[in-house]
């Protein structure tokens, strides 16, 4: 029978070194809160239960966790050992293994956590920890090994001798324990009644004293072991995750001209031969087709782009652009826009909640809000859809092949029939029948088109 597993995420630490109003573990790293990575890592092992140790002052953390983990309150933050000891009642009669994850170890990959458990089971260890050799071990717990290379203890920076400080194998903050071995060790350390800081890392010697084995799995990619304690490490974590995602997309056939400056969220897909320039942000649930060109300064959030879409320094938020659309420079497309194939959106144009038919053009500094436009419509320079009357928003409908002259204003709600022409500077306050030419303020028909 498989040995049962429960997981615990330590997320109650304070945010002192972050100097933040927001709990540290909720700070976003490359598009999602740090805590999300730990939750995903725990979930990857399908434990029978996930606990999260949370602090009294961060209800936001408990709210974020929702039903994904059972919150365990740590009233005083007395260290990682004390945090795990909050689980003693739950662990007392539990015969399986416990996975411990630090919520700020957000670069550890799920496959590494899986490998750690595998190694733990194979070795029949009482404690298995994840380690890595790093260039600058400062601030991390150092792994002290005996003559045979066996793990003897972990020493924290503050307690390390000069010689121990030179050790560059560090503790990543991911462990598998035989739950009963850990319980005994914690009890022997009297962590539960702690008054001063108690380190989880202190459990190795008592576990060995009980006759348990301690092992370490060294992860080859040392970027996985970064712990985020301050804003500098937060920036590093952000960069590292972006780099990983960029590399994934590169393998998928995407070109990045300046990959170091690109941000790619966790739920972004990009088609082959799409080219992404520098200083681009791709976020939310975003899907992009093949052969797109995303020029520098563009932001795409929760949007769907077809094939062959070109963006020039533009923002596309919660919207869809079908094949061969283009936008910008400096277009702002937001609020559920839906652009059919080949729609052109030009310089300094804002579209909000607009549905635009195939081949239509909104060329220069216009605002189109709450509107449905047919196909082959031309929206002249500086047109404004006045959708707000001071209290409510209203919608405009514009038929196929309508020509809106430069600087015309549509005072919503109005409907413009197919093939109508609106003269430059007209202010349209009433519906315009199909194939009618209107001019003036307020706009009046002058002839049939
Ligand atoms: C810890 C380890 C260190 C390791 C490093 C890896 C200890 C004593 N030290 O140091 O060996 O190299 O992580 O990044 O474990 N937390 C609580 N309650 C507390 C204190 C902390 O829940 O009372 C949580 C924090 O939210 C955090 C995690 O435990 O997610 C680690 O705590 P932190 O203070 O960041 O430990 P480090 O000093 O980084
Ligand atoms: Ca830390």
Q: How many separate domains?
A: 2
Specify the number of helices.
9
Radius of gyration: 29 Å
Strand content: 25-35%
Amino- and carboxy-terminal Cα gap: 82 Å
**Overall helicity:** 10-25%
CATH topology of the largest domain: Spore Coat Polysaccharide Biosynthesis Protein SpsA, Chain A
How does this model look, in words?
The chain has 449 residues and is an alpha/beta fold. The chain folds into two domains: 5-225, Alpha-Beta Complex (Spore Coat Polysaccharide Biosynthesis Protein SpsA, Chain A); 231-448, UDP N-Acetylglucosamine Acyltransferase, domain 1 (3 Solenoid). Helix content is 18%, strand content 33%. The chain has nine helices and 40 strands. The strands form six sheets. Strands 13, 14, 16, 17, 19, 20, 22, 23, 25, 26, 28, 30, 33 and 36 form a 14-stranded parallel beta sheet that branches. The N and C termini lie far apart (82 Å). The mean pLDDT is 96. The structure holds uridine-diphosphate-N-acetylglucosamine and calcium ion. Residues 104, 227, 229 line the site of calcium ion (CA). Calcium ion is lined by residues 104, 227, 229.
Q: What's the layout of helices and strands?
A:
Elements: E1 5-11, E2 28-29, E3 32-33, H1 34-43, E4 49-55, H2 59-65, E5 70-74, H3 80-85, H4 88-91, E6 97-102, H5 110-123, E7 127-133, E8 142-145, E9 151-155, H6 162-165, E10 169-178, H7 179-188, H8 204-209, E11 214-218, H9 231-251, E12 255-256, E13 263-264, E14 268-270, E15 275-276, E16 281-283, E17 286-288, E18 293-294, E19 299-301, E20 304-305, E21 310-311, E22 315-317, E23 320-321, E24 326-327, E25 332-334, E26 338-339, E27 344-347, E28 350-356, E29 361-364, E30 367-373, E31 378-379, E32 384-386, E33 396-398, E34 403-404, E35 409-411, E36 414-416, E37 421-422, E38 427-428, E39 436-439, E40 444-448
Parallel strand pairs: 1-4, 1-6, 4-5, 7-11, 12-15, 13-16, 14-17, 15-18, 16-19, 17-20, 18-21, 19-22, 20-23, 21-24, 22-25, 23-26, 24-27, 25-28, 26-28, 27-29, 28-30, 29-31, 30-33, 31-34, 32-35, 33-36, 34-37, 35-38, 37-39
Antiparallel strand pairs: 2-3, 6-10, 7-10, 8-9, 39-40
């Amino acid at each position: 029978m498989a040995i049962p597993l429960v997981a615990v995420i330590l997320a109650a630490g304070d945010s002192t070194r972050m100097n933040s109003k927001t709990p540290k573990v909720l700070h976003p790293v490359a598009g999602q809160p740090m805590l999300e990575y730990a939750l995903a890592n725990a979930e990857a092992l399908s434990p029978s239960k996930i606990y999260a140790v949370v602090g009294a002052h961060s209800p936001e953390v408990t709210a974020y966790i929702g039903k994904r983990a059972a919150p365990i309150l740590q009233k005083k933050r007395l260290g990682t050992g004390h945090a795990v000891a909050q689980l003693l009642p739950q662990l007392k009669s539990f015969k399986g293994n416990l996975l411990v994850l630090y919520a700020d170890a957000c670069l550890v990959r799920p496959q590494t956590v899986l490998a750690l458990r595998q190694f733990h089971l194979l070795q029949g260890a009482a404690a298995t920890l994840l380690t890595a050799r790093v260039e600058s071990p400062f601030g991390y717990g150092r792994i002290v090994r005996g003559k045979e290379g066996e793990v003897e203890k972990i020493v924290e920076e503050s307690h390390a001798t000069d010689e121990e400080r030179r050790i560059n194998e560090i503790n990543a903050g991911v462990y598998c324990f035989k739950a009963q071995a850990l319980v005994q060790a914690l009890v022997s350390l009297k962590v539960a009644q702690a008054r001063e800081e108690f380190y989880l890392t202190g459990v190795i010697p008592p576990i060995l004293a009980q006759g348990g084995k301690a092992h370490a799995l060294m992860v080859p990619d040392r970027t996985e072991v970064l712990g985020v304690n301050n804003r500098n490490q937060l920036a590093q974590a952000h960069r590292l995750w972006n780099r990983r995602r960029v590399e994934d997309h590169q393998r998928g056939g995407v070109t990045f001209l300046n990959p170091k400056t690109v941000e790619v969220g966790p739920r972004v897909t990009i088609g082959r031969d799409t080219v992404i320039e520098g200083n681009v942000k791709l976020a939310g649930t975003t899907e992009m087709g093949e052969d797109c060109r995303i020029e520098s300064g563009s932001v795409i959030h929760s949007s769907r782009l077809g094939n062959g879409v070109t963006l020039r320094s533009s923002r596309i938020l919660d919207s869809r652009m079908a094949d061969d659309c283009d936008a910008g420079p400096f277009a702002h497309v937001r609020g559920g826009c839906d652009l059919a194939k080949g729609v052109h959106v030009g310089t300094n144009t804002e579209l909000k909640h607009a549905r635009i038919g195939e081949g239509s053009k909104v060329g220069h500094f216009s605002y189109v809000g709450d509107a449905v436009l047919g196909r082959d419509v031309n929206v002249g320079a500086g047109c404004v859809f006045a959708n707000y009357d001071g209290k409510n928003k209203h919608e405009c409908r514009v038929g196929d092949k309508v020509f809106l002259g430069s600087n015309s204003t549509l005072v919503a709600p109005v409907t413009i029939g197919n093939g109508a022409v609106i003269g430059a500077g007209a202010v349209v306050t009433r519906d315009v029948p199909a194939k009618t030419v209107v001019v003036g303020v307020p706009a009046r028909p002058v002839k049939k088109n």
